[in-house]
Design brief:
Elements: H1 3-11, E1 18-21, H2 27-39, E2 47-51, H3 65-76, E3 85-92, E4 95-102, E5 116-119, E6 122-125, H4 128-136, H5 140-151, E7 155-160, E8 174-181, E9 185-190, E10 196-199, E11 203-207, E12 214-219
Parallel strand pairs: 1-2, 7-12
Antiparallel strand pairs: 2-4, 3-4, 5-6, 7-8, 8-9, 9-10, 11-12
Helix pairs in contact: 2-3
């Protein structure tokens, strides 16, 4: 992320991926925010914690940017697993502001005591169901399904009663809602009712021929 991009984000309202704190922010608050950032952003999204900025966006600055960055690194070392992050010092209205940039990774969930996630502009303790999704997201298939769930997208599910080698018995594709992804299995809800569940080993993911929808083939 370039300095210009960081400054643009500095002007944004606080949201799921942007947080502002004064320079006297406490260790636990920094850890909680960065853990929630690491656990929450979708693929390709970066979250930023600005230190030296008021809630209303007014730049307050930090007295010693280098010391602030070193302190953040020490705080992050207390999180588990390690959080991928970088930091930059940007100048705004003659004041130095530290921007801590957290990248999502596949080693979720991260902990600072509890596992935190972002809900709106707040860092909150993950519920049991969200915690299970964080663990599931370590696998590539679950990540793709959880992204469709997050976006509210239907997925096309086809059942293969006799296995993937028997094309004759392949079921008719059904548009389904992704209801749940646990570390062991995914659950889908077709429009016609009932539900379909499968572990990830019996599942193949691809795109529909038009490339617009996630396709899920399940060996049943």
């Amino acid at each position: 992320m370039t300095e210009d991009e960081v400054k643009r984000r500095l002007l944004d309202l606080e949201d799921g991926w942007t947080e502002r704190k004064p320079q006297n922010v406490g260790k636990d608050d920094v850890r909680k925010t960065l853990v929630a950032f690491a656990n929450s952003p979708p693929e390709g999204e970066e979250a930023i914690l600005f230190i030296g900025v008021a809630d209303n966006g007014q730049p307050l600055g930090v007295d010693n940017p280098d010391k602030t960055q070193k302190s953040v690194r020490q705080y992050v070392d207390l999180c588990y697993p390690a959080i991928r992050h970088t930091s930059k010092v940007v100048e705004w209205d003659g004041k130095h502001i530290v921007a801590v940039i957290a990248q999502p990774d596949h080693n979720r969930p991260h902990f600072a005591g509890p596992a935190f996630v972002r809900i709106g502009s707040q860092s909150v303790k993950a519920s049991d169901s969200v915690f299970q999704e964080l663990i599931a997201s370590r696998t590539s298939k679950a990540r793709a399904l959880l992204e469709a769930k997050r976006k509210g997208e239907l997925v096309s599910v086809s059942l293969w009663p006799m296995g993937f080698d028997d094309y004759i018995m392949r079921g008719i594709p059904e548009d389904c809602v992704v209801v749940e992804c646990t570390p062991l299995l995914a659950v889908f809800q077709p429009k016609a009712g009932g539900s379909i569940s499968s572990d990830y080993e019996r599942m193949r993911l691809s795109k529909t021929p038009d490339g617009k929808q996630l396709r899920v083939d399940v060996a049943h």
